[in-house]
Amino acid sequence: MKTWQAFREGGKNIYARRRYVLVIYGLNLILALILGSFVATDIRASLGNSAAAETLREGFNDAWYRGFSAQAQGVSATFRPAVTGIGAVFEGLDALLQGEIFNHPGGIYWLGLLYWGMWVFFSAGFISLFGSDRGEFFRDAERLFLRFLLLAASAGILYILIFTVLLPLLNSLVEQFTREMIDERPVFYYTLGKYALVWIPVLLIQLVLDYSKIAAMRHDVPLKQLQNAPLLALEFILRHPFRTLGLHLLLGTIWLLCLGCYWLIAPGAGQSYWITIMLVFLIGQIYIISRIALKGWFLASETALYGKGN
Amino acid sequence: MKLRYHLLLLLLVAGILLSGSALARQDSLLTAVDSILQRIDHTRIANYTMEVRLDVATKTISGQMELSWTNAARLPAADLRFHLYYNAWRNDKSAFLNSVRYHDRSGWNDYRDDEWAYCEVSSMKILGDTLFPEVEVSSALEYIQPNDGNEFDRTVLRLPLRRPVFPGETIRLALTWETKVPRTFARTGAIGDYFFLAQWFPKIGVFEPEGLWNCQQYIQTEYYADFGTYDVKLTVPRGWVVGATGREIARSDNPDSSTTHQYYQERVHDFTWVTTPHFQEFHQTFESPGLPPVDMRLLLMPDHLDKKERYLESTAAALKYYGSWFGPYPYGHVTVIDPAYQSGSGGMEYPTLFTGGTRWLSPPGTYSPESVTIHEAGHQFWYGIIANNEFDHAWMDEGFNSYAQQRVLRECYPPRELSKRYLEGFLPYVFSGVEILSRTGGADPYGGFYSDFKRDPMAVPSWRYGPGGYRLNSYNKPALMLQTLENYLGWETFQKVLSTYFQRWQFRHPRPADFFAVVNEVSGRDMKWFFDQAYGSADLFDYGVGEVKSKASQPLKGYWQSNGERQFFDGSGNGTAETSSFLNEAYIRRWGEAIFPVEVQLIFANGDTLLESWDGRERWKVFRYIRPDRLVKVTVDPDHKLMLDVNYANNSWVNKPQRNAAAFKWASKWMVWLQNLLEFMAFFS
């Protein structure tokens, strides 16, 4: 199967299984709602009967925020005005690029781990659905979960090594190379190069991990021989380097397009009325759904490519 | 002139010996000294003629200097004291590297062996004239530590004199010295082929009118020096661009591929210079009705060429508004330095020269370079011309300037919005609609108050401020204090206060009491109560609305006079007309220790608005009204005059708060952030 065919088939498959996308989105929303309710309660309590609420509703009230942030505890301490609009994405993306995505206060850290584990489970369900004619999402997810968890954890060790060994090493090297530079531009390019060196292996590991999971499902690789799954994946990728990388690139481009669209329409802080506040929230939710669907699309397309190409 | 002073002093001494009572002797002596001192030109106390050569390979400066110094105090100077600032980085035991502000040495620990620094005087002699014989004094030099007794600190050099310098006398010295330039730290030093040289030469301290040296060790503050004339020849590699205090009056190429630039400036109290082959030079003349023209010279680094107009516009804005509010800029020229990336030399002021600061990517909403440029250009007034003692009273320039900077920003630019930088700070993003505080001067004044309130009072000498205290007390709190004062006195009065203060103290060294005196004099009010609290104490200002009640009035109960007769009402409402009114009570609280008169605005449901005054002295005050409508809004200090109030959010009460919508709005945005974050975390699944 060619890249474009896999891409299209993946799209069709994820659309056909959209209810599972909505299930994952629902879980994402519930988790966010639980913590969000704490933040809302704290903001509400902090405002009391103050007229500051009015300016905060209409836009932002920095004087209130300075006091709130100085006294906020727990997850509320992570509240900041930069979460508005596209900032909601930039804040996370910046942390992701620098390998600091899990550097968050306890509640969010554990929630993140839970969500990560959930996605390992769901990816098993998706791959099973997309890879076999008689797949059953939750039953297969349960059946494959342990194997997928081991594969993800193994990849996780490599990710950790990249961000705790390679990135600091590159930081140090770039710092040495650029220490005497008094023009910001070459330092920026060095920095871009540094992140390219970090993220190329990260993306390759992700590619191998995805196909390892698909291989583990396709060949029903037993737990004791799970080490064969990455080998099968590597073999597949090396046999079809342009197709696998092309598909990754194509879907990556779709993600960038989604991000760009959200950037264009993501409203700032100017909503005053319940209806507009809800509308903005809705736009944010559509973006989240698109991200989840896209992640499913990745898995569906890769499964399609592997299934026919192998 | 010098001979005449000397003879006069001898006559005085003789007069003292021959006169009658000791008191009369003292009075006559002081009167005579004062008459001598009145004739001294305070803009020519410390005059330097220097010839220096920069060796870029070894990062050293070798220099020769002739210094003439006049004793403008009422007592003789038995010694001379010099700052050798670069010795702050001579060793790791220096007072600077062990100060509260720099003790963790963040940034310094990464420095390499060849990046340490020193400043050493290799020879010094007193130049002979009619008052002093020519004598070599190098062997008499000693390092002293007047502040902390730290024997490893060599930032103050003392020359004991065999013969004191009497009031009004001038002594001339010749000295040679060598300075090893550090990697840029605390806004001076070298990085690559960019040399920013501030506090780089042996600089004489200030002999205060009381006859004591103010020549403090370099600890955590900025600087203090007397006015004088600087005539400096700077030799640098040919082709390198030089920016310096003053105007370039001569330039000559030398046979050894170097060029000597001669800079000259009168009536300044420091000399700073910068050189690199990378600068591109631009000129523009500042012109504004009623103000003298100023040649603005801009030295830009190549990665910031697109910031040229923004630098020049913001410099002009500062010259215009500071000039019209306080007094005209007197020098006719100013050099704006765009500091090199990673040089750490940005955002600093020197006479007739200052450094701005920006980034390669810096859209207009970031206010970079505008904000820092206005601030540092403003320092030409508050620091350059009004030259307070920054060791002890850093707030007198930083606070004044932060306050004035915010005024200019409000005049010239739209409200500031939140901006953040991503990817290690390279990529900026401005959050449209998220306005952040800009009215109050300094960075993060409220944050500073919350985290650092109850630090030292401003009155504590700046070099002794505890952790977090320097920024709060030098920038944020004084800016808020001055804004509060403006709001209290009114801009018209306060502008007169500041312009009077500026005119009266230009080219001199005012102290806090001098400013307070001008405030009282010009405003016609005794503001001691305010300064005692805001300046003399660390007490907090915090007024707020406590409880607010609006309840339907109960019909009368008990004995009441009705139609001239005592009548009993049983509370059932029969015979009374009280049913449609409300008893409204608003309790206003003083949560903080500090006291300030405030206004209280009360708004009723029918739109009626009352404005009450409260002297703010008691801990609380209740405002009671029986009116046909309920209270719907109460605000203490509705115009936010008391900018020192540490929590303005508690200054208001509304009966129908918008907290649900506000909380949902922002919590929902936070949720979208969290949902995105979870998806990013799931990337690794």
In short:
The complex is a heterodimer of chains A (310) and B (685). Chain A has helices spanning 3-16, 18-47, 52-58, 62-71, 87-97, 106-131, 137-178, 184-218, 228-239, 241-265, 274-309. Chain A is mainly α.
Structure description:
The complex is a heterodimer of chains A (310) and B (685). In chain A, 80% of the residues lie in helices and 0% in strands. By secondary structure, chain A is mainly alpha-helical. In chain A, helix 1 (3-16) packs across helix 10 and helix 2 (18-47) runs antiparallel to helix 11. With 685 residues, chain B is of the alpha+beta class. Chain B has five domains: 2-38; 42-276, tricorn interacting facor f3 domain (Immunoglobulin-like); 278-380, Orthogonal Bundle (Neutral Protease, domain 2), CATH 1.10.390; 417-534, Neutral Protease, domain 2 (Orthogonal Bundle), CATH 1.10.390.10; 543-654, Immunoglobulin-like (Sandwich). In chain B, the strands form nine sheets. In chain B, strands 5-4-8-2-1-14-17-16 form an eight-stranded mixed β-sheet, with no helix packed on it. A five-stranded mixed β-sheet of chain B has the order 19-20-21-23-22, with helices on one face. A four-stranded antiparallel β-sheet of chain B has the order 6-7-3-11, with no helix packed on it. In chain B, strand 16 (247-253) and strand 17 (258-268) form a beta hairpin. In chain B, helix 3 crosses helix 5. Chain B starts with a helix and ends with a helix. At the A-B interface, helix 2, helix 3, helix 4, helix 5 and helix 6 of A face strand 24, strand 25, helix 6, strand 34 and helix 11 of B.
